[in-house]
Design brief:
Length: 208
């Protein structure tokens, strides 16, 4: 459809909402409430569920995971339920993801975006989200590396997005998010290649 002035205004509004919600760091808030160390100062220094799991345990990690997923899911699902065009849905999801990576409230230094992108994909289309989560779970169970699971799942998500949604703009948005996620995992890729990456559940205080 034509991107008229009204549509551009709607896209801007939804994207702003997505970005501001995505900027909320569940990891930092959860750790503060539970009396745990700031995740930016321990372990991998990443405010995400995997680092929280290593440093704070399963309960804190589950809360972080669900919170990060919800901030990607909620704005996108609202756009979908309001029957917004694909341009709005794609922009909203991308903005929420960028909010997690570059949060307004924390000096634009955020997490790697795994849980948030899963939430975005679930909101966009339930089958897209479940398919990507399925890939992550399979890789996690077989290889026990969170980063490897995320990289493989993210790499497959644009393909799933195309076959499930048949939308070019949504597929391009998912591909861009996947590329950013891979980029944010560059240190993990180096560790994987060197055989130094920590497996899921292993406590470690080294920076990555």
């Amino acid at each position: 459809m034509d991107l008229t002035a009204d549509i551009i205004l709607i896209i801007t509004g939804f994207a702003l909402f997505g970005y501001l919600l995505g900027s909320v760091s569940t990891a930092i808030i959860t750790c503060k409430i539970m009396g745990l160390a700031d995740p930016r100062t321990v372990g991998s220094n990443n405010p995400g569920a995997t680092n929280v799991l290593r440093e704070g345990g399963k309960k804190a990690a589950i809360i972080t995971l669900l919170g990060d997923m919800l901030k990607g899911l909620i704005p996108v699902l609202i756009a979908v339920l309001m029957n917004m065009p694909n341009e709005v849905i794609a922009a909203t999801g991308l903005a929420a993801f960028l909010g997690h990576l570059f949060p307004l409230y924390y000096g634009f230094k955020g997490g790697k975006g795994v849980a948030t992108i899963l939430g975005v994909l679930l909101g966009t289309h339930w089958l897209l989200g479940l398919g990507t989560i399925g890939i992550w779970l399979f890789m996690a169970v077989v290889f026990r590396y969170s980063s490897l699971s995320a990289l493989v799942a993210a790499s497959g998500s644009p393909v799933l997005a195309w076959f499930i949604t048949q939308s070019q703009v949504i597929t391009l948005s998912v591909a861009f998010m996947a590329a950013l996620l891979v980029w944010r995992h560059k240190s993990n890729i180096q560790k994987l290649l060197a055989g130094q990456e920590d497996k899921i559940g292993k406590k470690d205080s080294r920076k990555s």
